[in-house]
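ZP: hey, is the adenine complex queued? I don't see it on the tracker
AM: it wasn't, my bad. submitting now with these inputs:
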Amino acid sequence: MGGWTIGVLGGSGLYAIDALDGAEWITVDSPWGAPSDQLLTGTIGAVRFVFLPRHGRGHVIPPTALNFRANIDVLKRAGCTDLLALSAVGSLREHLAPGGFVVVDQFIDRTVARPNSFFGTGMVAHVSMADPVCPRLSVLAAEAGRRAGATVYEGGTYVAIEGPQFSTSAESHLYRQWNCDVIGMTAMPEARLAREAELPYALVGMLTDYDCWREGDAHVDVPSVLKVMHANADKARGLIVALAGLLPAERTASPIDTVLDTALITAPDRRDPALLARLDAVAGRVLNR
Ligand SMILES: CSC[C@H]1O[C@H](OP(=O)(O)O)[C@H](O)[C@@H]1O
Ligand SMILES: Nc1ncnc2[nH]cnc12
């Protein structure tokens, strides 16, 4: 038991949060390289927040070049207990109208060019991704979104594409046939790495457009995404403030806090010391005992 420290990954159009008491940008180094930016830390009530603009302030890093491992590693090092990801997403469903929020509960990963694990040769691990998000944080994020005035849809499958180009119409129709609900470029491998780092992860997709599947509609472009995001930025910030008020005073353990207990397979005497050193924050709990 203890308090909550919520790491917030801010996506397109959300590069800072202004409601933090004692707000301070801090630098956290990572053995995985440079994260997207400094971390903005501060508190709202009893809850500590650590905010990272996923693409860096000024949106300088494209999805493929994001150092997802460093981003998750620095959030872990900064003491985060849980992660809330906020992302602009395209809608693949008529009823998921731009302006609404979708609390995602599944993923299909179509990314092809991103390191997607902290583990590797010399320290092999396999975590379950069957239930890729934290149900506890997802429920609270949904309620926080409603309190912030958003229309919130609970549950939905996010297809992660490599980008940076938006999809072809054929792909957009295919993803609809696969029962995907929303589309974006950043939740993978972010959600995988959060799980490996034993950080419960919830994702609120902020619907900005109908991608390019809808007959007679203009296809998605950057101005249309940013227009909706700017109109919704207050609701996103309101969600964070409302979440602080909804979290119980004490954080009880989550099963996700200990997923590495059953994930490591490499024999202790065959482990690579250099890789173990890089895993100090992510897996120190199980490697140092
Ligand atoms: C600006 S449109 C495409 C861009 O927006 C989304 O970013 P994020 O998930 O960080 O909000 C999408 O994944 C693309 O990176
Ligand atoms: N249609 C779309 N495709 C991929 N990423 C997005 N982010 C926001 N809208 C998107």
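AM: back. The pocket of LNRAV4D5 (ligand 1) is lined by residues 11-12, 54-55, 63, 87-88, 184-186, 222, 225 (CB under 6 Å).
ZP: great, adding it to the tracker
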